[in-house]
Amino acid sequence: MNHARQYPRHWRRPPQIITDRRWRRILPLAILAYLILALGSLEIDGARLIEGLERGARFAHGFLQPDFTSRWGDIRQGLIESLTMTLTATVVGILVSVPIGIGAARNLVPRPIYLVCRSIIAVSRSLQEIIIAIFLVAMFGFGPFAGFVTLAFASIGFLAKLLADDIEEIDASQAEAIRATGASWWQLIHYAVQPQVMPRLLGLSLYRLDINFRESAVIGIVGAGGIGATLNTAIDRYEYDSAGAILLIVIAIVMLAEYASSYLRKTLQ
Amino acid sequence: MLSIDRLSKTYGTQGGASGDTALNNVTFQVPQGQVLGLIGPSGAGKSTLIRCINRLVEPSSGTIRLGETDLAAVRGRDLRRARRRIGMIFQEYALVERLTVMENVLSGRLGYVPFWCSFTRRFPGHDIENAYRLLDRVGLLDHADKRADALSGGQRQRVGIARALSQEPELLLVDEPTASLDPRTSRQIMRLISEICRERELPAIVNIHDVPLAQQFMHRIVGLRRGEMVFDGAPDDLDDAMLTEIYGAEDWTAMRQEHEDDTTAEQDTRLQLAGGAG
Amino acid sequence: MSKLAPRVGEPTHYSRIWTFRTPRARLALWFGWLALVALFVWCWQLMNEGTMWMFVADAPRQAADIGSRLFPPKLGYLPELLAPLWDTLNIATLGTLGGVIMAVPVAFLAARNTTPSATLIRPVALLVIVTSRSINSLIWALLLVAIIGPGLLAGIVAIALRSIGFVGKLLYEAIEETDARQIEAVAATGARSSQVIHYGIVPQVLPAFWGISVFRWDINIRESTILGLVGAGGIGMKLQSSIDTLAWSQVATILLVILATVVVSEAISARMRRALI
């Protein structure tokens, strides 16, 4: 043992993420420059903000003392539209996404079908619900039907993608075993694929039901029906107490749906 | 000198009489420099006992005296002051995996430095110097800037020892130090702990499930069974009848057989401590 | 003779019927499906009470009409989109920054192992998270435009408010999943609770924190492109005005720009997450 040895009295933590010296110098400067530029392009109107404070207080007040009654007819109609739209769109979405999901699984289908199905998924996923809704409202006219088509289309991208990824990850040896018995393609799907992905598909469907309800509250803003339209009207009329009531209902339903779907997913597994 | 007097701990319903009794009227003293081994089957209350001493577990009744302080009664700032006088070495190391070895050793000084000091990682010079000395003592001087999760099990446990020692403790609590190590490394770690206790005249309580290892390295052994002390004496007094009483049906003879095999294997490759764990 | 006679104890007859489920379970399953179909039909009728089927039937013609107007996209419109695109990036980035800054304390208050009070403060923190999560950023924007007026600021605040719930939820789950032994070990050295958090918890959740933040930034880029539809600034404002004037070729250009932005931000976030973890 060398107890007489001298030990350093200073220690610096070695850099963990960015080890290059130059980058360590440049990066903070670049971030600072960006922040200055970005904050500089904000045009803040002080007078408008002060007015906003007062309106914000009114909104907070409306949120704390929500008015469910005076617009109850509209709220009820919006809720019915949202809920029915959510359910039908999810069901149709699942029905359509199962064949597309199977078609988009590389290990099950020939290449041309795979490419077609994957591009349908890509289109559905890259466009946001609200943009799809704008087009569909222009096509189908205002109302929940356009919303239903929007949500169904969006569900297809979501469910088919995850389903296809799931199928591609299934245990290949189980599929081999079934194939070795001389099973046809349909039998292969039924005996090797379905049992492996079914629980996940159920879970995903419930999750999507949840998402579709949240989205149904949004697409109404562009005229696709549902509670979002009611909310938009309430805010346009500055009826913050009605808007507060609608938001509280939305929050309550979302919480309920989330709780119920996580409970269901747990019991199903 | 540590003295524990009628220490009891009941888990479960708060304040109620019902609940699991983990410790029941445990009383003993540990004089300066003594390495005391705590043995017993799992669930005997070994872990609870040493966690009561530094109050990671709240004792239900009794006193724990370290020097002038009653550890069972302190709270708030006094509790933190008391804790920094007690070094603890954990089962499975319990290092902060994503910090460097040096930061882990320096974290032993947290009770001594103000928040801003630890926040900016600017520890006083003598703390850093001491940390390097301890790392040298446990044979890890070259690993100071590595992340803890890059080390092997034996090396991590040495960092754990260095962290405990950097507190400049008056008492060492050691919880199953070899539980996840291979037999050879286990012996090296136990030897290191007992050497350090000898060098510094440190009393230590070592919670250990491996009876032969305990008999080899401990000065004194306390046997616990269902929260009660059933044995207190020298390692040599621990005979088969006593072990059966402590462990019941558990097959400790197999444990001893294994130990003898390991010892003969070890004699072939007598390693020095440093750099051995690889 | 005796060889042919069945031995005692050996079954002589095997059932030829094998079913996957018991009759009762099958009945319940069929009933469940029937109920689902009935529910679907009922919802369908309720939903389509006011639907003008004439318009729906007309949809293919409308689609063809819009489609023909979308092409070719008006590329000359691109330079006009640069400033709104910059605004959109700022909404997403500053909004994420604000959201993350607010989410960190909320997450520590909501995590079971760091909350100062599990009965009083934790429910409040969880309520904040749930509220922020259940309201879409477009609705937040709608509210904020009404309150603080149209413009970038409303967009930034909307994105920030929506991000609190997302980041807060994932972060508090990460905090609850930390290794308790590492924290215990830091506490055992006599560290005060701020030091326990800084040395025991922060290093464990830091990778998750960066991952979550970058992930949310990616989502926020996507969401901030449309906030302009309700007046909260960015490229969505151009989209809204182009739709209002039925300038479909401009709409096509804007959609292409949005698509490109989303793809690029996704690539950046994937690379950053790989580098950080």
From TrEMBL, chain A:
Compartments in which it is found: Cell membrane
Main localization of the protein described in the UniProt heading: membrane
A GO cellular-component term linked to this record: plasma membrane
Transmembrane region(s): 26-44, 87-109, 130-156, 243-264
PROSITE patterns: ABC_TM1
Protein topology in the membrane: Multi-pass membrane protein
Domain ABC transmembrane type-1 stretches: 79-261
Alphabetic keyword roster: Cell membrane, Membrane, Transmembrane, Transmembrane helix, Transport
Family indicated by similarity: Belongs to the binding-protein-dependent transport system permease family.
Protein name per Swiss-Prot or TrEMBL: Phosphonate ABC transporter, permease protein PhnE
Organism: Halomonas eurihalina
Automatic annotation (TrEMBL), chain B:
Pfam family, one: ABC_tran
Gene3D superfamilies: P-loop containing nucleotide triphosphate hydrolases
Designated name of the protein: Phosphonate ABC transporter ATP-binding protein
Gene source species: Halomonas eurihalina
Disordered: annotated segments: 257-278
SMART domains (UniProt xref): AAA (SM00382)
Classification via InterPro entries: AAA+_ATPase (IPR003593), ABC_transporter-like_ATP-bd (IPR003439), ABC_transporter-like_CS (IPR017871), ABC_transpr_PhnC (IPR012693), MetN_ABC_transporter-like (IPR050086), P-loop_NTPase (IPR027417)
Domain ABC transporter: 2-251
TrEMBL record, chain C:
Keywords from the UniProt entry: Cell membrane, Membrane, Transmembrane, Transmembrane helix, Transport
Residue ranges of every copy of the ABC transmembrane type-1 domain listed in the record: 85-269
Localization: Cell membrane
SUPFAM superfamilies tied to this protein: MetI-like
Record bears the keyword Transport: yes
Domain of life: Bacteria
Transmembrane segment boundaries: 27-47, 91-111, 138-161, 247-268
GO MF terms held by the record: ABC-type phosphonate transporter activity
CDD domains: TM_PBP2
InterPro entries per the UniProt record, alphabetical: MetI-like, MetI-like_sf, PhnE/PtxC
Membrane topology according to the record: Multi-pass membrane protein
Gene Ontology annotations for the cellular component aspect, listed alphabetically: plasma membrane
Family to which the UniProt record says this protein belongs: Belongs to the binding-protein-dependent transport system permease family.
Protein name in the entry: Phosphonate ABC transporter, permease protein PhnE
Gene behind the chain: phnE
